[in-house]
Structures are given as structure tokens and as C-alpha cells.
Amino acid sequence: MPTRYGPSQPDRVRTSATSGVLSERVLNKVPEVTIWFWIIKILCTTVGESAADYLNYNLNWGLTKTSVFAGVLFCIVLAWQLALRRYVAGVYWATVVLVSVFGTLVTDNLTDNLGVPLEASTIVFSVLLGLVFIAWYAREGTLSIHSIYTRRRELFYWLAILFTFALGTATGDLVSEGLGVGYFRTGVLCLLVIGAVTLAWRLGLNAVLAFWIAYILTRPLGASLGDFLAQPISNGGLGLGVTVTSAIFLTLILLTIIFLSIRKPDVIAVPSDPQRLAELDEPETAPRHHLQSRRSALIQTIVVVALFIVVGGGFYAIRTSQLNAQAQAATAATPGQEATGGTETTVSPSPLGDLSVFIVISQDTLSLLNQGRQAEATTRITDLESAWDSAAAILKRRNPDEWTAVDTKIDRVLRELRSTSPDAEKEKAALRDLLQQMGGPPGASLG
Question: Among residues 95, 101, 94, 99, which one has the least CA distance to residue 49?
Fold first, then answer.
């Protein structure tokens, strides 16, 4: 049995490749896949999501500035990870957190800034991830994460990780927002699929294939978990808020990393014997069933990908048809008097239909600001975000351009209200601008 490298052992080993050329290898740079791996991966995903929101909204940086900052920080930490000669839990998982943030922001920028549909992002990132795997296997002859002990393999590994987060973001947002399934139910759906993949792995599904499917799906699962914990109780969450949720998850990550650093249950030892190194590359390819294993893995991959395309495509078609029918059946808002809480609100028609619910929340928030009740206004605006996200799937189908215009102004309102240094006048101006876009009362009557 291979033994783990101890502190006194060399950071590098030199082995003879099958071609007879000496190659220099570094110790395995990634952790063993244990229960600890999946726990901390989900925690990192959730923190990555909330960290991006904190920079974007609470610090009011906006999506572009947040993306640049996250990209630069990710490159710095990745360079640190690549420079190491062994797996270091703290550095590795810091890289995962940052690749989670950056991968998420790549998709968000394509969607929000460039207007790329989530359907297109999902397809493109799926293809790119597939090409990475093909190039990785063609060059290295293995996709095993138990053999990440060369610089090239590690670069392939992190490129694949980046695309899994971008793909996970696009897929999760498409299902939860684009198809109106919601974050919580999307998380439950991901959990069920991961469970099915785990069972299939137990029954003989290729381990590499099962690993990467689960890795992709843990991204929307982690985002759904964070959303559930942070959302107010009135919206079906636990009401912990983004800050408290992030603090809890960061603490759990830190404690887990300390445990892993001390006990090292996730360290993969790399043997110095050439024959054992070859077995580590492809542990399932002993001579007596080498061809059968490769053929089986290829067949399984084709079947699983086809299954995802058929089932996912069928669900998309059915759900899209339902949403289109609902959008067509919805009637446009009728100008007139909307009674709300004993007051009357003049509402103008919108291309999106009846937006009175969103207008009322925006007016309530503005009224609270006019009374100097900043904390209550910040809490109230969360209702707008939740209601808007829940209705987005249908509203966007009524008039995509108008939906984008309103959505952009809602993002501005959220940034102003959640800023760590709120400016009352900017908050009010953003709300007036939003109300005007939605066809609410004239700005002059809003105080």
C-alpha cells in the first residue's frame, strides 16, 4: 500500500516515464474525495455566492468592479496554489472559494451586462467543459483526480473547476429563475440528482464521471442552501440574513480546514515506484480488463450525457410551454385606483402587466426612508427582490426588453439600500426612478 508523504520526505520525486524519459513530478496537489471534501465544497460555494453579493450590493461596487476584483484575487491565489509542491488545505480551499466567486461572476456578466440568455450560457459552458476533458484525456491519458502531480494536469484541473462553477451557475439560474422553479426546489432537485448519481456510482457508474456530475450540481445546491438560510421567514427562509449566513459558513470552513490540516484525512499519497504511479493514473485499467474498462467508461459517459440532454430538454420544453401559456393568459394592468392598506395608488399600465405588488413595496420602502427608518426600509426592499425573482419567469416572457429595464433599476435600488454607507437621497432617487419605470405614481407625489 502507498504511504503518505511525511514532512521529512522530499517535495518532488523523479520517475521514469514509459517512454524512458525522466519527468519531474510534484506531490498530488488536490484532496482525496471524502465526506469532508463535499461538506467544505458546498460551504465554499455558498460563501462564494454571498461574498459576490456583498461586494456587488453592500459595498455598492457593481457587477463589473466586483468581477475585476474577484478575477485579480483569484489569479493571485491560484498562482500561490500552483507554486506549492504539495496539497495545503488552506490554500487549496481558498482557491476554490475564489474560483466559485469568479466562475459565478462570469455567468452573471454574460447574463446581466451582455444579455446572453441562460440557455446559451448553459450550452456553451457544457461544450467548453467537455472540450477541456477531451483535451485533458488526450494529453494525459487520464482524468483521475488521484494523479494531479504535474503542473499541466493541475492547470487542466483548475480550468475544469472554473467551467463547472460557470456551468453550475448558468444551469442553476436557468432552472430556478428562468424556468420559475425557485431556489429551494432547485436545491432539492440537485440533491435528488446527486443522490441518484451516488447510487449509480455504488452500482458501477464510472467514478470520474460521477465525481464531475456531482461537482457541477453542488454549486446550485450550495447557492440554494445559502438563499434558504438568508431569506426572511416571510419568504420561506430562516431569516438569518446574508451577513450572519456568511459568518456561519466562514467559521465552519475555517474549523474544517483546521481539522484537515491537523488530521490530514484528505491527503493523497503519490508512490515513487513507476509501476504504482501508472496504476494511480488509471486504477481501473489492469491488463486483464483494460480495454473493457475504457470502453465501459466511454459508453457510460455517452449514455449519461444523452440522458441529461433528453430529460433536461424535455423538462425545459414542458416548463417553457407552461410559462408561455401563463404569460399569454395574464392580463395587462388596468389604469385606475389600486386599494392598498387603506390608501389609493394610481397605477399606469405596463408592458409587463399588473405590477401593483412591486409598486406597493417600492412605495412602502420610499415612505420608510422619508421617515428616516433606514433599517426597516432595507428589510422591506428584500420583499421586492423575492417577489420580483418569483415572478421573473413569466414577466420576462411578456416583454423581455421592459423586464430588463425594470430589473436593472431594481438592482440599483438594492445596491443603494444595502450599501454599508447608505445615502438617503441616492436611495430615494433610485426608488423614484424604479417607480417611474414600472408606471407608478408620478415622482413629484412621492416625497
Answer: 101
Q: Report how far residue 164's alpha carbon sits from residue 276's, in angstroms, rounded to the nearest whole number.
A: 30
Q: Whole-angstrom Cα distance, residue 206 to residue 293? A: 9
Which residues, 6+ apart, have CB-to-CB distance to 304 below 8 Å? 205, 209, 213
Q: What's the pTM value of the predicted model, to 2 decimals? A: 0.79
| Alpha-carbon gap, residue 84 to 150, rounded angstroms | 11
Q: What sign for the dihedral angle of Cα 380, 381, 385, 390?
A: positive
Q: How many CB atoms lie within 10 A of CB 372?
A: 9
Residue 235, pLDDT score = 62
Range of the domain at 306: 294-329
Query: Strand 343-347 to strand 22-26: parallel, antiparallel, or no bridges (unpaired)?
Result: unpaired
Residue whose C-alpha cell is 457587477: 63
114 contacts 62 by C-beta, under 8 angstroms: no
Nearest to 179 by CA among 324, 57, 69: 324
What pLDDT score does 19 carry? 36
367 and 411 in a single domain? The answer is yes
Phi-psi region of 349 (alpha: psi -120 to 50; beta: other; left: phi over 0): beta
Among residues 153, 151, 147, the alpha carbon closest in space to that of 283 is found at 147
Pair (344, 319) in one structural domain: no
Which residues of the chain carry a pLDDT beneath 50?
A: 1-26, 283-292, 332-346, 442-447
